[in-house]
Structures are given as structure tokens and as C-alpha cells.
Automatic annotation (TrEMBL):
Keyword check for Secreted: no
Enzyme class: hydrolase
Cofactor-binding details, from the entry: Binds 2 calcium ions per subunit.
Family the entry assigns: Belongs to the paraoxonase family.
Protein's name in the database: Paraoxonase
Keywords attached to this entry: Calcium, Disulfide bond, Glycoprotein, Hydrolase, Membrane, Metal-binding, Signal
Length: 479
């Protein structure tokens, strides 16, 4: 009997592992091949040979590139060379990429830049925010750009427990930013386990000198982040879920869901109607479902019930336990059932740090983008989700139109298992009419890896498009 139980448990475990493996292959688009979409006037940018993972362009045409990222598990063409920041003046007739000098005192030998973002202050001071992974750790570096000297003055290094696995950043002040954590854990093995089990614990954090807080969570792997030209909406790419989230910024800088999907990743036929608890007496000849009244004092408008359970005490008192997700949070509500009145008396709300990471179950084959609106208090409210068929990395905004440009990985299994004979491809999407009922998604560029491998970002400026990659080259195109 014991052996039978052990074999049964082993079989269940192997089946679960197999299902998770197949689901991960699906999320990684393992079997997808990209069809080339070429642009006629493109050339590789001289001086970029080991990747330009992120690009940010100032209104005056100065483009910043973060180059030389070394990332665990990914190929590198310059594994022993530290990363750097390059700049290109797109107003020049023949722009060249020049490396910016960094002030003394900053550890250049361990510089490993990832996502970047610029912020222009009221006095026209330009700040450059850089996600850095020195020795594969996680920091945010803030620099002041000295244009006349083509240099960066290092101002501050930021480390925080809420920034365990930082991927990208969008600056909203001289020392203020939103940042994505692509994993909840910093340990490599736990990161792998988190991805394999599809725990959806990745998140977005708001940082200021006065406050650091979690503002959005429930992502499979939060990656690129950017902000709309009017500063009302924050866009977050969830790379493994094939989604872009559109979030509304609240006055307190949080990012919260306003309407749309009540349960992340799942359709809903009554997105603006609160949840209810219904009762049906199966002893009746023609049972009918009847909504139970809930006592005053409980916030019925935000009731978003999930799992439920009942408990009957020794005195026959019936207690109803309800998993609730008010505003996409996670609580447990305890009610007392009053049978004669057909009502529920609310007794207690339970919140705990071990409950805030409730695992949301979503369709792992979903291919979408979530759109969120930004409010004056810095909260973000989810407005919509845009579904895509590729893995979205970094996001940039076309300043002339407000369109989103997404650097994508069409076949990331090739990215993780690098083969120079069959390299990972590149893909750039433009998403137009982002807030409309039917956003338009167009492919601007696609390549099977013969020209450009493993694209991560695309940025436009006055008819010029720059495309960066995680470890390969960078492309300059005239549109």
C-alpha cells in the first residue's frame, strides 16, 4: 500500500512537472519562426558590438544607449568588457555613437547597465537613470548629463529591498522613478523556480527620497516600462505573458486597476459590477439563487470574491470565509451567516504579508499588453490589456504620436540556447490608438537573426528609428 501511494505521488509530481515544462515552452514561443519585414534604409551602428539593451532619446535628438549588458544565462560577445553608456546626436548628417565619460569615483569596472531613462528638470538639467547589475546585483544609478563635456556626473547609487531584480525604469522626477522587478526573488535558483511555476510575483515599485512602495503586482515577468506623453498612463510590458499593461497613475503614485479585467488575465462580462454572495436552498422543489445582504460597514462596492469556505461551530453558528481581491489586493473576509434574515454579518478582515502575494491563475498562452492610467497621487489604475503574439521587452513612446514602440523577442528559446548557426530573431511592433477599443498593431521591422539578433528596444526621432539588442548589434534606420 505504501509503495502504491509513493508511486501515485511520484506520477502526479512528474505529470505536474511535465505540464509546467510544456507551459513554459508555450510562454517562450519555442516553435515560432519570424518572417522578415525589411526596411530599405538601414545600417548597423559602428561601435556597438555587444548589445544596446535600452535606448532613450531626448527631445533635442540626443540618443543614449546602454551597452554591454551581461545577464545570467544569456550569450555575450564581450564577456570580459564592462558596460557603458553611448550617445548619438541624431541631428547630425552622419551620426556616430560616442562613449560618454563617467566621473571619478564611480566603479566602471563592474558597470553592467540594463534599462535606462532620462528626466529633464525645470532648469533644463538632464538626469540619466540607469539600472545597473554590478556583479549581478541590483542598483539604480543616477547621473547628471554634462552636454558640453560629453560626460556623466555620478550623483547617487540606490539599493532597496523592494528592488531585488530590477529590469527597467522610467524617471518621473530628479530622484523619482517607477521600476520593474522581473522576478520577486534575487537568488538565481529561486528566480528559475518562480518562472517555471508561473507564480506571477513580479511587480512595479515607485521610488522617491521620501517613500518607496509597491504599486502594481501580479505580473509573470515585468520588463519594459514607460509613460505616456501626457504623464497620465504608465505602460508595463509583461514579457512571458505576451502582454502590455496600461496603468492609470493615482495621486499617491500607486498603480491600481480601474476597470477592465477584474481578475488579471481573465475575461469578465460585468467589469464595473461588484461581486456578490448567493445562496440556493437545494431542499426546495424549484431552487432559486438569492443574493445575500451584507451588513453595513463592509465595503460592498469593492467586493471581488474568489474562493469560499464554511465552518459550523458547536453552537451551530455558520461562518463564511471569503477570499477577496478588493482593488486587486488580497484579503480574507469572515462573515457570520444569519439564516432567518438571509444575510451576512461581517466580522473581520484579515490582511497579512504572506497573503499579499496571492497567486493569480491566468491563461499562459495569453498574448497581450496591459494599459494603466496614471493619477496625480502616482497610483496606477489598469485601463486595458493589449494582446500580442510575441514576447515584449522594452517600450518607448513616439513623442509625435503617442504610439508605443515595442522591442520584441519572437523566439526566445533561441535566445536562451544560443546557436550562431540558428540565432534568435528580432521584431519591432508599433501600437497605435492605444486607448481605443481596437488598438492597431503593426510590424515595423522583423529579422530572423541574419542581420540583427535578439532585439530589445526601438526608439524613433523625426523619421529615424534606432533598434537595440540584448547582446548583439544596433540598427539605424531611416523611415
Amino acid at each position: 500500500m505504501g509503495r502504491l501511494v509513493a508511486l501515485s505521488l511520484l506520477g502526479i509530481g512528474l505529470a505536474l512537472l511535465g505540464e509546467r515544462f510544456l507551459a513554459l515552452r508555450n510562454r517562450l514561443k519555442a516553435s515560432r519562426e519570424v518572417e522578415s519585414v525589411d526596411l530599405p534604409n538601414c545600417h548597423l551602428i559602428k561601435g556597438i558590438e555587444a548589445g544596446a539593451e535600452d535606448i532613450d532619446v531626448l527631445p533635442n535628438g540626443l540618443a543614449f544607449f546602454s551597452v554591454g549588458l551581461k545577464f545570467p544565462g544569456l550569450h555575450s560577445f564581450a564577456p570580459d568588457k564592462p558596460g557603458g553608456i553611448l550617445m548619438m546626436d541624431l541631428k547630425e548628417e552622419k551620426p556616430r555613437a560616442l562613449e560618454l565619460r563617467v566621473s571619478w569615483g564611480f566603479d566602471l569596472a563592474s558597470f553592467n547597465p540594463h534599462g535606462i531613462s532620462t528626466f529633464i528638470d525645470g532648469d533644463d538639467t538632464v538626469y540619466l537613470f540607469v539600472v545597473n547589475h554590478p556583479e549581478f546585483k541590483n542598483t539604480v544609478e543616477i547621473f547628471k548629463f554634462e552636454e558640453e563635456e560629453n560626460s556623466l556626473l555620478h550623483l547617487k547609487t540606490i539599493k532597496h529591498e523592494l528592488l531585488p531584480s530590477v529590469n527597467d525604469i522610467v524617471a518621473v522626477g530628479p530622484a523619482h522613478f517607477y521600476a520593474t522587478n522581473d522576478h520577486y526573488f534575487s537568488d538565481p535558483f529561486l528566480k528559475y523556480l518562480e518562472t517555471y511555476l508561473n507564480l506571477r510575483w513580479a511587480n512595479v515599485v515607485y521610488y522617491s527620497p521620501d517613500e518607496v512602495k509597491l504599486v502594481a503586482e501580479g505580473f509573470d515577468s515585468a520588463n519594459g516600462i514607460n509613460i505616456s506623453p501626457d504623464k497620465k498612463y504608465v505602460y508595463v510590458a509583461d514579457i512571458l505573458a505576451h502582454e502590455i499593461h496600461v496603468l492609470e497613475k493615482q495621486p499617491n503614485m500607486n498603480l491600481t486597476q480601474l476597470k477592465g479585467l477584474k481578475y488579471p488575465g481573465m475575461p469578465n462580462f460585468a467589469p464595473d459590477k461588484p461581486g456578490r454572495i448567493f445562496l440556493m436552498d437545494l431542499n426546495e422543489q424549484n431552487p432559486k439563487a438569492q443574493a445575500l445582504e451584507i451588513s453595513d460597514g463592509f465595503d460592498k462596492e469593492s467586493l471581488n470574491p474568489h474562493g469560499i469556505s464554511t465552518f459550523i461551530d458547536k453552537d451551530n453558528t455558520v461562518y463564511l470565509y471569503v477570499v477577496n481581491h478588493p482593488h486587486m489586493g488580497s484579503t480574507v473576509e469572515i462573515f457570520k451567516f444569519e439564516e432567518q434574515q438571509r444575510s451576512l454579518v461581517h466580522l473581520k478582515t484579515i490582511k497579512h504579508e504572506l497573503l499579499k502575494r496571492y497567486v493569480y491563475v491566468a491563461d499562459v498562452t495569453a498574448k497581450n499588453i496591459h494599459i494603466m492610467e496614471k493619477h496625480d497621487n502616482w497610483d496606477l489604475t489598469q485601463v486595458k490589456v493589449i494582446h500580442l503574439g510575441t514576447l515584449v521587452d522594452n517600450l518607448t513612446i513616439d513623442p509625435a504620436t503617442g504610439d508605443i514602440l515595442a522591442g520584441c523577442h519572437p523566439n526566445p528559446m533561441k535566445l536562451l540556447n544560443y546557436n550562431p548557426e540558428d540565432p534568435p530573431g528580432s521584431e519591432v511592433l508599433r501600437i497605435q490608438d492605444v486607448l481605443s477599443d481596437k488598438p492597431r498593431v503593426n510590424t515595423l521591422y522583423a529579422n530572423n537573426g541574419s542581420v540583427l539578433q535578439a532585439s530589445t528596444v526601438a526608439s524613433v526621432y523625426h523619421g529615424i528609428m534606432l533598434i537595440g539588442t540584448v547582446f548583439h548589434k544596433a540598427l539605424y534606420c531611416e523611415l
